[in-house]
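User: For my dataset I need records formatted as: sequence, then structure tokens, nothing else. Please produce one.
Assistant:
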Amino acid sequence: MRVHWSVILPGLLLAIAALARPWLEATMARHMAIELPMLFALGWFAAHVSQSRSPLPLPPWNVSGLPAFFAALLITGFWMLPVALDLAVLDTRVGVIKVFSMVTAGAATGASWRRAGLVMQAFFVFNWVWMTLTIGLLYQNAPQQLCSVYLSDQQAAAGSGMVFLSLAVLIGWICHAFYLLSMQDDGAQQKAGRPETAIWRW
């Protein structure tokens, strides 16, 4: 039986992330701005592959995807805390919990994303961006060392990475939302048999 590459790719990428863990967690910036988003993205990608092959309806408890989005916000927000970062580096068991929870958060969000609609997507994106941007700015401006395993001079770089990541996600989602709205508008015009609006050309 032939196995499609998309089925094994999430697991392969997770194995690569595990091998790269010492390098990723060597600095605070790589830990927060690369490893954590990568784990979330792996879960998202795995859910996307699963839904593409065999789409399933949202379970009754996950109405409009809101519970999954809210849980993902709590999980991602927790691993941005200094004490959580310290424990994830110092205790292997906590590190495993971090990986599992971040992948699960990504998978839950990815499985709910398409059926949630733009309103629920906006709720998740704007709240995540606000939270990540705020924490990033706090790390940039904190006068004292917040993490015991990372020096204080690494906090500014980590904060800058989080600010950049939050703005990139916001801009990417806004572009995505405008694209979907334009596609829906074009589809509605074609269905109604109306000509498209003329574009002024100078």
